[in-house]
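Crash report, auto-generated. Payload:
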Amino acid sequence: MQQPIATALVGVIVAISVTVAFLSRRFTRSTSEFYVAGRGINAIQNALALSGDYMSAASFLGVAGLVWAYGYDGIWYAAGFFAGWLVLLLFLASPIRRFGAYTIADFVAGRFHSRPLRIAAMLGTLMVSLFYIIPQMVGAGELLGLLLGWDYVFAVVIAGTLITIYVVLGGMRATTYNQIIQCVLLWTAMFVVMTLALGKFNFNYSELLGTVAEYTEPGRWLDFKNSFALIFGLVLGTAGLPHILIRFYTNPSGRSARWTTVFTLLIIGTFYMMTPVVGLAARSLLGDTPTTTNLVLPMLAQHVGGEWMIGIVIAGAFAAILSTVAGLVIASTGAIAHDLFTMLVPGASDKRQVIVAKLTSVGVGVIAILTGLLFRGYNVAFLVGLAFAIAASTFFPVLMLGVWWKGTTEKGALAGMIVGMVGSGVMIATSLLKVHDLANPSIITVPASFLAIYLVSKLDGKPPADTLEFMHKVHMPEKVHEAAE
Amino acid sequence: MEQKKDKAKETEQYVAREFKKSFSLGIFFLLVTLILPILNQFAGGFMLKKLIGNLSVTYLYSVLLIYIVAWVITIYYVVRTDREEEEH
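Recovered output after restart:
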């Protein structure tokens, strides 16, 4: 299928992305600029960028597709993706910003002064980011391949190369501005499709539901156990995603980090509220026509708005993929070029660190392209769900207890991270091998990780000597710190 | 020394107060979210009751109520925390 309008719009996005990166290139001279945009991103800018970062192909294409396929049970994903943000706001956003580092490993290592924990956090970041990158690249290949007639390999290489170019050229600053533009584009695309689709039902939500009544009831896909486990994993997983957490470092203050989360909740909340309308409208208008869940939204767009609409949706999906992968590339680059490199080469100059970061981004970009080629055909939303499970199990318990419980010790934190990381890995592998039918393991591995941290810390009984100073730094308002200075 | 002890005590009290606020709001929201599959399982008849036209209780809960509760908690928490930090 050739789509001249869609091809032109994708071309425009490519041109904008590269221009933004080119204009931002002077902002990558220091590590602070490269990783956290000099901590100069205000709350509204950061909320838009975070929303773009967070709403991936899984949100843009996947949720509407799942609602089309399973009706009400697909809506769990929308609610779960959204609900996690509140946990992030209440427990982690402000303390993470006040700590003021570059990566999650920095935060964990800063709390416990531990090399093994830095390595574990680095590995966890890479594991989560990789599980997240794979479905985005697969999505890019399938989408551009099927809808624009591009060869799958060509599409994956184009997407991966473009992201790498703008991360390397413009660092976090270019990534942020691109994510802002991409967020506006994908939100608007969803809004226009929803409005046109609802127009087919006289703008009457109830009339739409009446045409697909059997799809508005639970139970077509997930049983009680799995729906509970899925919500649990998605809610806690959001608060453990490294590429999301590090964006809070770009805020100027803890207060600004909180307001960022408020605006993000408004942007993504309104977005996820639209997805059930679109999914159910697709069920009503297209029936069983779509062959794969990922193509439901573009097909609906074509049905309700013709070639222009499908063009806008393809551009929106492309924007969703670019913005998320760029965030993941920055997070993975930080894990390797900052966490690992500064540990192996202590005292390396800032200039040298920036060069290493840029070279690492190229390496991560190549890995993204290769995994995209390797995992062709894998289910997009399912893989993202697994990334959430690993994030929830590996990072959420250690961050939560590290921030709030002064009794947490280095050994306890390490035990919790290992239990979470290995446990979720084993549970996912055994689920794929059909040893059990629990699709999302967080409901077991998150409590297990919390328990491991608590028990080992109690047995150990030696929290770091400067724990209260750490607590003071991450919890007390900025003006207390300013007064002390 | 005395000053250091005061600072430690102040931090502990502040963290405890903040945790109480975040924890109570967080638990309330988690209950609102996680109770939905439980209600669907054990109070299916009520949850499928149509409330407005073809919109059932469970449908409105999942596409509207969860979002509204989250927004209200968010605004309440951020405004309250900003005020408390100003007064501190």
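Post-recovery validation: Strands of chain B lie at 50-52, 55-56.
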